[in-house]
Specification:
The complex is a heterodimer of chains A (234) and B (107). By secondary structure, chain A is mainly alpha-helical. Chain A folds into two domains: 171 residues, no CATH class; 49 residues, no CATH class. Chain A contains 13 helices and no strands. In chain A, helix 1 packs across helix 10, helix 2 packs across helix 3 and helix 2 packs across helix 11. The longest helix of chain A is centred in the middle third of the chain and has 29 residues. Chain B is 77% helix and 0% strand. Chain B contains four helices and no strands. The longest helix of chain B is centred in the N-terminal third of the chain and has 25 residues. The chains are: A mainly alpha (234), B mainly alpha (107). The interface between A and B is large, with 107 and 79 residues.
């Protein structure tokens, strides 16, 4: 059903010099502590990371609950901040699609799409034959997801010992990891421009709309990068 | 478990899974060699980059208590460490947490 060799290979992607474990762990430790302070039980905190597994979404959930937002407002706020997962999925799944693989693998494993797992897969897929990529991906997904759940538990349990300076330290780790991964991914004109323009336009659009800035900024930046890249190739 | 919190968690996870699910449906019809795929590839990277820039420049949590200049210095130094260690990801991430904790408690 799942090719063990490639699954294990994916699982092992969390070891070594490119390991996302520290960055991922740090941010979910912070989430675990945050959820505890919000009044979540340990089961609820685990359940949250288990089911959502997307950091900005969990943060928005926490903020919305803090201000007492309605369920529909929480849904919209989370959907907005996590809508980036749509282009991320479309930019990943066609690379993994194979007619010999059952569909359920794709619909289940899309749950594992988050920034770190996605960047690791984008960095490694070329080395894997297409038919085996989905099993490799499931390995990466299970590994990163498990770290997130485990770290949420640690964060929940350790929340009383985490002071403000430590939480600030934890908060920077994930952005630094993403920035370095993105710089490492800048191998073509299109991707380099996408990263640079997105980094500029996202904050610029923040002044127009804090809620929509990621999607608007990302859409405009990515489209400009696409057209410039297509023109320079042809 | 409190019913209220559980419902909020389920609503959050549905709002999140929705984009992933629709992404897989769209992927069924998109070939990896197509222009559409390349466009979405650009959109994915630019949206991620916009998200990260937003988190760093307009943070909502504990990072907002840190001065812009310090955040900027930590990022630049971490990128330098990333290059010095031949694109190792473990060192710059560890380095950033330590240096920021030190800077935030003494500056």
């Amino acid at each position: 059903m799942i090719n063990t060799k490639y699954f294990l290979k994916g699982l092992k992607s969390i070891k070594g010099v490119g390991s996302p474990a520290i960055a991922l762990g740090a941010s979910f430790v912070a989430i675990g502590a945050l959820l505890k302070n919000l009044g979540f039980s340990i089961q609820e905190s685990i359940f949250s990371t288990f089911l959502t597994y997307a950091l900005p979404g969990s943060l928005v959930m926490a903020e919305s609950m803090f201000i007492g937002a309605s369920l529909i407002n929480i849904f919209i706020a989370v959907w907005l901040v996590n809508a980036r997962l749509y282009p991320m999925t479309v930019a990943l799944m066609p690379l993994l699609m194979h007619e010999n693989q059952p569909r359920w693998k794709y619909y289940l494993s899309c749950h594992f799409i988050a920034v770190s797992s996605w960047l690791i897969m984008k960095d490694n897929y070329e080395a894997i034959e297409k038919v085996n990529r989905i099993d490799f991906w499931i390995g990466i997904g299970i590994a990163t997801w498990s770290i997130a759940i485990f770290s949420t538990i640690i964060g929940f349990l350790a929340s009383d010992f985490l002071n403000k300076d430590m939480l600030i330290g934890l908060a920077i780790v994930n952005p630094i990891y993403f920035i370095c991964m993105m710089i490492g991914a800048m191998k073509t004109i299109q991707i380099s421009l996408s990263v640079l323009l997105g980094g500029i336009l996202g904050p610029v659009f923040y002044f127009l709309s804090p809620e929509w800035c990621i999607l608007f900024g990302g859409f405009v930046a990515g489209s400009i990068a696409y057209f410039i890249g297509e023109r320079s190739v042809s | 478990m409190s019913a209220n919190i559980v419902i909020v968690i389920i609503v959050t996870s549905l709002a999140t899974y929705l984009s992933r699910f629709l992404g897989v449906i769209s992927s069924e019809k998109i070939k990896e060699t197509s222009r559409l795929f390349r466009w979405f590839n650009c959109l994915a990277y630019s949206t991620l980059s916009a998200l990260i820039a937003r988190i760093v420049i307009f943070p909502s949590g504990s990072l907002s208590e840190i001065d812009y200049l310090i955040r900027f210095i930590v990022i630049i130094l971490s990128i330098v460490v990333f290059y010095l260690t031949k694109k190792n990801l473990v060192y710059p991430t560890l380095f950033s947490a330590i240096i920021l904790s030190i800077l935030s408690s003494y500056v």
